[in-house]
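User: Fold this; tokens only.

Assistant: Input:
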Amino acid sequence: MQFLRSNSKPKIIRTRLYGDQDFSRFELEILHTPSLQRLYELKQLGFTDRVFPDAIHARFNHVVGVVEVVQKMSCRLLAWLDGHHDCTFDYAVPAGRATAVESVSGKELATLLRDRLAALRLMALLHDTAHGAFGHTLEDEVQVFAEKHDDPPRQVRFFNALVAQLLYFWVTERRLHDLAPEVLEELSNLGLSENLLREVRWAEELAADLTTEERKVLLGHLRDLELAFRLLLRIEFAHGHGQTEPDPETLLVTRVADKLGGEVLPQDLVFHRDLFLIDMVGNTICADLLDYARRDADNAGLRVQFDDRFLRYLCVVSVDGEKSPTGKPAIRTAIQIFTDKMRHDVLSEISGILKARYLINERALFHPIKCAAGAMLGTAVQFLGLQSLPPWMQVLGDTEFISTLAQLATGIESVAPALAPSSTNRDRAWQDIVRATWPADSPTSTEVTRMIQAMVPAAGKSLSTEQLDEIVSRARAARSLLGRLRSRRLPKLVYRLRKAHHTGGESDKTIAEKFSKAKNRFALEREIESICNLPLGSIVVHCPVRKTSMKVAQALVVGSNLAKSAHLRDVSSISPEGLEPYEEEIRAVEKMYESIWQLHAFMDPSFAHKRSLVELAFERAIGFPDDRLLSDELSHEEQDGVFGLLTGDLRDHVAPVHLTRVVARVDAELVGRKRLGNDQGNAREFLLRIIDDVSREARSSAIPASDAQLGLPGVETGR
């Protein structure tokens, strides 16, 4: 615990973007934990490296960079506050059931910021701690997991584990305990003892071993860490996404600090006063954005440039109404575009950041290849019935996560035969058989049980043959997708929807609302496979939530009058003189950002001969034709075949309700040969005969509804 020594000096870390960065010994203690070291295993841009091979930088690199940026921002803001000592800023405070408004001077805010600089740096260091493997892909893009990395319950789980890890290192390094690898592994997997009793006992033992001065120094660091945690827990609330302000009573760091003594009290947190601190780490123009905008573009090889000299004009303002997450008076960070003169260069640089972020989204984050990889992983997760991540899976790195999914799929497939009713296990529940299969691996057996229950929700004590077939087929489909994903044998784009509208009906916005939901998208994929007689996992769809604006455009700007602030997109309301072109440019980039949204449908290239058939099925299912540019491009690549004829010249010969039966009959009769020769006349006669046969059968005996439907069972239109 060298950080407790009075002569403890900062350490230097050399980084590529910022050169030498200073870190305190306590910050290094945080960095040197399983919770922070695991960030090396999480790529900042997920599957973007499938497009840009050098974009393999990790979240660890990012959080280290954010510390440097927030340090620069703090220095600039302190300089501004020192020049505005007499300015006052209003903020709301709770007053029983009502709300009161208090004021703080620029001088007092400067003192508060200096006192909280250590906590602010810890916020920067810890803001991505709760990220899981492919977090933004699985949580935000394909939305197969409801819990996100910045949800307070998940953050508390990771924060408590981090503190427990620190405690265990400290009590073992001071020889109060021998290090037991199983305990360290448990803590690394977010395993905490019941009611945190064991961890609190470690704190008591540590307190007894420290001198009074050492205990006081440690307590000061823990209070900084406590404040950092509490501020990070309010990031989503600060964005206006939370219903109530979170303030959990389960933070382990608070209990540990209390056990160390009362020499250093907790730092007070007043949300509406301290909101500007949260803004500096993770809001609009923040340290998080400024680092990843430069880092992501640099590693992806995208030539974007912007200068952060505008940080010289960082300031704070008091706002209310729509500019406050609660509507009540609050203090927020802003950019002052007028000092002794209008700072047009400041607006230009902020606009440059907005453009840089747009370019990264357009060329990297929503590149079709990256979307295909993300869709494959999301569909594989859905096949396996994995609806939420247990703690031990939340800490897995990217590569280990995919390997674990493949192992779980293999385990499900291998255990399935043992779950079939037989004379030897007739009286045993299938859940007991699963537990007996992995007697020494409770996490795996528990997760396999949960996944099987999700695959066949109607399962009772025993499983039917049909249910077992469903389980095995889904596990095999997941294994196939994961195997192709790890080999970069990605599916090919077969249908794309950009912009569409039906008067009084569906539009690209309603389509995005419907198929951004994982359940609806999964049903669509399986329906297209059924229509086109394709195996499970042949079709994957990527449909992100439609976003209407860029977060940067929500940044606050202010002129010489600090009482009059505006969002960047409304900058001319500050002073219309000469600012209209900047506002028009910002709004134009926002409009361009809307055009990024696309629905992509991909198909296993092994079935390329059915491309036109899949395209037709999507057009009918979604209600809009394929993007003309894509359709023309793909039509030039394929050779004429029986399915091209079926969806081309003979398209009107097949009733939509008969298409599925016709495709299945064609496949059945073409077994053993890949084409009908080069004579299109033979192919035409072949198809017409099958169409006539299916139509005649339909007239004589009704085709089952399951064969005749082009609808999407299970699709939900609401949340």
